[in-house]
Amino acid sequence: MAEKKRNIIYLDNSATTQVYPEAAAAAMEAMTAIYGNPSSLHGMGIQVEKLVTAARQQVAMLVGCKKEAIFFTGCGTESNNWALKGIADAYGARGRHMITTAIEHPSILETMKYLQQKGWEIDLISPDEYGVVPAEAVIEKVRPDTVLVSMMAVNNETGAIQPIEAVGNGVKKKNPQTFFHVDGVQAVGKIPFELNRLPIDLLSGSGHKIHGPKGVGFLYVAKGVRLVPLLSGGGQEQSFRSGTENVPGIVAMGIAAEKIGKDLKEKQGQMAEIRRGFIAALLDYVPDCVINSPLDETGAWPIVNASFPGVPSEVLLHYLEEDGIYISAGSACSARKKQYSPVLTAQGLADELLSSAVRFSFSYETTVEALSFTAERIAQVVQEVRSFRI
Question: Which CATH number does the domain housing residue 352 bear?
Answer without folding.
Answer: 3.90.1150.10
